[in-house]
Prior knowledge:
The chain has helices at 10-14, 37-41, 45-53, 60-67, 71-83, 100-113; strands spanning 29-31, 58-59, 88-89. With 114 residues, it is mainly alpha-helical.
Amino acid sequence: xxxxxxxxxxxxxxxxxxxxxxxxxxxxxxxxxxxxxxxxxxxxxxxxxxxxxxxxxxxxxxxxxxxxxxxxxxxxxxxxxxxxxxxxxxxxxxxxxxxxxxxxxxxxxxxxxx
Length: 114
């Protein structure tokens, strides 16, 4: 007999919240500093999957895809887990390697072609 899985509504996962305390971009990396199986067993299935998948460093977008939740819900769940020090949100090391003047010249050139 197949097992039935019930998906909960997004507002149940987020407690009705839609915003995070800190900005989480789609490429922001997240990891679990130390895995706690007892803590994981008390989470809702979607949050547990996110927590378990973050054991290997992944981006917010990757976690959202693996867990099957929207980016907004994933961000809020990550923010909640980070607030309890269960997840580590890594600082964004990426800065734009592009020169703004070059991008403006490119834009202007494309406008002239149009």
